[in-house]
TrEMBL record:
<dbReference type="InterPro" id="IPR019807">
    <property type="entry name" value="Hexokinase_BS"/>
</dbReference>
<dbReference type="GO" id="GO:0005829">
    <property type="term" value="C:cytosol"/>
</dbReference>
<feature type="region of interest" description="Disordered">
    <location>
        <begin position="1"/>
        <end position="26"/>
    </location>
</feature>
<keyword id="KW-0324">Glycolysis</keyword>
<dbReference type="Pfam" id="PF00349">
    <property type="entry name" value="Hexokinase_1"/>
</dbReference>
<dbReference type="GO" id="GO:0019158">
    <property type="term" value="F:mannokinase activity"/>
</dbReference>
<keyword id="KW-0067">ATP-binding</keyword>
<dbReference type="GO" id="GO:0032024">
    <property type="term" value="P:positive regulation of insulin secretion"/>
</dbReference>
<comment type="pathway">
    <text>Carbohydrate degradation; glycolysis; D-glyceraldehyde 3-phosphate and glycerone phosphate from D-glucose: step 1/4.</text>
</comment>
<dbReference type="InterPro" id="IPR022672">
    <property type="entry name" value="Hexokinase_N"/>
</dbReference>
<dbReference type="GO" id="GO:0008865">
    <property type="term" value="F:fructokinase activity"/>
</dbReference>
<comment type="similarity">
    <text>Belongs to the hexokinase family.</text>
</comment>
<dbReference type="InterPro" id="IPR022673">
    <property type="entry name" value="Hexokinase_C"/>
</dbReference>
<dbReference type="GO" id="GO:0045725">
    <property type="term" value="P:positive regulation of glycogen biosynthetic process"/>
</dbReference>
<dbReference type="GO" id="GO:0001678">
    <property type="term" value="P:intracellular glucose homeostasis"/>
</dbReference>
<keyword id="KW-0547">Nucleotide-binding</keyword>
<dbReference type="GO" id="GO:0006007">
    <property type="term" value="P:glucose catabolic process"/>
</dbReference>
Length: 372
């Protein structure tokens, strides 16, 4: 069985559960997860069985074993004080024990990128990269063992979770960051961290658009120079509006409806400008993300010394799946930046859950073979 917690919320930051909000404590958070597992087992009448569980945890951890990961820091606007520095599998096991109404053997913990890669590998054995462009952004890939310094042995390959969303914390992105990015960063729960993710992820895209719109209003270039209270309020412009605005068929109806719900009275030109802003912000995200993936794929081709690298990338995440043109712009730029590579993209369906389940099945089998 596979379960996951990644702070769902589509392209916005909604969906923080009653207990899973930013002020929760680790016990509350993990009690909520075990409550969800309990409800699931009830629904499927499986409570009497002790099942193995694979846990997808979509935050940076120091993996000390297949079933042990120390949370390094929260991302994507989540915060539960006291969880950082702790083994999240241990926190889940404790919560299951506290409930006491079911038994579960937590056999593996994986990142969502890894689960996505594994679930796609099941269908296509060329899948050696997993990527998420959702609320957050990250990728993993299969690295040659001789390049993996932390593990002994030179044979074969090992999966590396890049946690590339953290890129930029030492100033690497400074020349690319705009004033809007700096505001988004400063007002976030983790200033100075996850700067690459903040340019791409759905948690932030709508907010960047809102800040650009306010700047245009300020310069008297939009809405007759007047913003509504709603538009002035942080977090109101969800990333799903960016997708909806760019999906407008050309009659501006959809854009008009969204903007009037923001208590604005837009002219036709205002609607076109807003669409242009959304396109700029989402295209920048797609291109920045392409640069990351191209870097990973070019590295794989070089370290395998192959003239042509034929590879499949498994992808999941609300921005990738729901935005009308992110995918196409992203694919085109990745291909431009990776000469000598033949890349297939496959969209994962419920990859987080299915991948964790597959990994747990393998972990159980290996444990059996080793007589544990
Ligand atoms: C986390 C990653 C995760 C990504 C996508 C990031 O904020 O650090 O572990 O893979 O979001 O969910």
């Amino acid at each position: 069985m596979g379960t996951g917690w990644r702070g769902r919320g589509g392209t916005g930051a909604r969906g923080r559960g009653r207990h899973g909000d930013s002020s929760a404590t680790p016990p509350q958070l993990f009690d909520y997860i075990s409550e969800c597992i309990s409800d699931f087992l009830d629904k499927h009448q499986m409570k009497h069985k002790k099942l193995p569980l694979g846990f997808t945890f979509s935050f940076p951890v120091r993996h000390e074993d297949i079933d042990k990961g120390i949370l390094l820091n929260w991302t994507k606007g989540f915060k539960a004080s006291g969880a950082e520095g702790n083994n999240v599998v241990g926190l889940l096991r404790d919560a299951i024990k506290r409930r006491g109404d079911f038994e579960m053997d937590v056999v593996a913990m994986v990142n969502d990128t890894v689960a996505t890669m594994i679930s796609c590998y099941y269908e296509d054995h060329r899948c050696e990269v997993g990527m998420i462009v959702g609320t957050g952004c990250n990728a993993c890939y299969m690295e040659e063992m001789h390049n993996v310094e932390l593990v002994e042995g030179d044979e074969g390959r090992m999966c590396v979770n890049t946690e590339w969303g953290a890129f930029g914390a030492s100033g690497e992105l400074d020349e690319f960051l705009l004033e809007y990015d700096r505001v988004v960063d400063e007002t976030s729960l983790n200033p100075g961290q996850q700067l690459y993710e903040k340019i791409i992820g759905g948690k932030y895209m709508g907010e960047i658009v809102r800040l650009v719109l306010l700047k245009l209003v300020d310069e008297n270039l939009l809405f007759n120079g007047e913003a509504s209270e709603k538009l002035k309020t942080r977090g109101t412009f969800e990333t799903r509006f960016v997708s909806q605005i760019e999906s407008d068929s050309g009659d501006r109806k959809q854009i008009y409806n969204i903007l009037t719900a923001f208590e604005l009275l837009p002219s036709g030109t205002d609607c076109d400008i807003v669409r242009r802003v959304c396109e700029s912000v989402s295209t920048r995200a797609a291109q920045m993300c392409s640069a990351g993936l191209a870097g990973v794929i070019n590295r794989m081709r070089e370290s395998r010394s192959q003239d042509t690298l034929k590879i499949t990338v498994g992808v999941d995440g609300s921005v990738y799946k729901l935005h009308p043109s992110f995918k196409d712009r992203f694919h085109a730029t990745v291909r431009q930046l990776t000469p000598g590579c033949d890349i297939t993209f496959i969209q994962s369906e419920e990859g987080s859950g299915r991948g964790a389940a597959l990994i747990s099945a393998v972990a159980c089998k290996m444990a059996c073979m080793m007589g544990q």
